[in-house]
What does this fold into?
Amino acid sequence: MFAFGSNGAKKHLSSMAYSIRFYSTAPVSSRADILVEFMVNSLGFSTKEAISTSSKVTRLKVRNYEPHLLVDVFDEMGLNKPQIKTLVSSSPELLFCSVEKNLKPKINVLQQLGLSGTDLVTFIKKSDFLTRGLHTTIKPNLDYLKLLLGSHDSVARVVKREPRLLSYNLPKVIPPNISLLQNLGFSQADIETIFNRHPRYLLNNPVCLERVVHQAENVFHIPRESRMFLHGIEALVSLDDSKLERKLDIFRSFGWSDSDICLMVRKHPYCLTSSEDKIRITLKFFMNELGYEPSYLASHAPLLKYSLEKRVIPRNEIFKFLKENQLIRGKLSLYTVVSSTELEFQKKYLLPFQEKMPELYDIYIKLQAKEKS
It folds into this structure.
């Protein structure tokens, strides 16, 4: 898989000059300069970028490892120069890893999971996978996941969704959380659903997970049998107490009662995962500009999660235009308009009026572009 062809051999020979100079008896400062030169000439770094990146490397007491071999391996895998540069920028220590003993076996593991190209770059960027021991961490984790999930495809799917999984000691971290959920009455199917949707949630301290289950059931009164219960856990597990309280205080500052907030969470728990700024801006728009009451927004909670710029504001303008020009009749709410898919929205609220108002579609597209800019 990693055998070099004639092109690889030429690249290997052409970079030997760097290798010889780098591993000479030159002082560390000179080797650092040579590393910068290598990054500029071979990886497309600017001098400033190369100096900044190389300064993060603490292992200039180099063994018999050659940076150009790393580039050759990634090149043979089909990664382009910008992708290789991205990897080295995020993990410059890669330049000093053993290609044969360290890098290739780990890359093979990722390829067996179906990762390649951009997906491979993204995976490595999001994890410290390449710094973990193959036999002490990576393979034991994969074996445990296979035992837990039952198939190679399931393991691959979960690992792609959460690259950091392979950086933990999974056989030690996950079982206490599974036992906790089982003791709280969760079925095996529920636990598998949680893990498949958001694997990192079972990496939390069991005390944190127990707190979140208590909040969902006893603070926000989400019924255990509700399909929103698991979503509530998924939303709350990302919030510590202080962050959660700050967000709740924002709702209260707009006149929301605790019962309004609980209703919103039961309808759409992910409203709590929006940033504090987004919560403020969204509430200002719906309440101050459009005049909606907390009770209405709480019972139509998905409104609060849609993008104002890309979806709500452009569709609201079209909705107002159609009503003002009496092009639609009957009771039609903004919630219905906003919650429609893009295809449904255009089919119902743009295309039927194309002959009478041919400019309507252009207005909509311009509004979207304006809000994005």
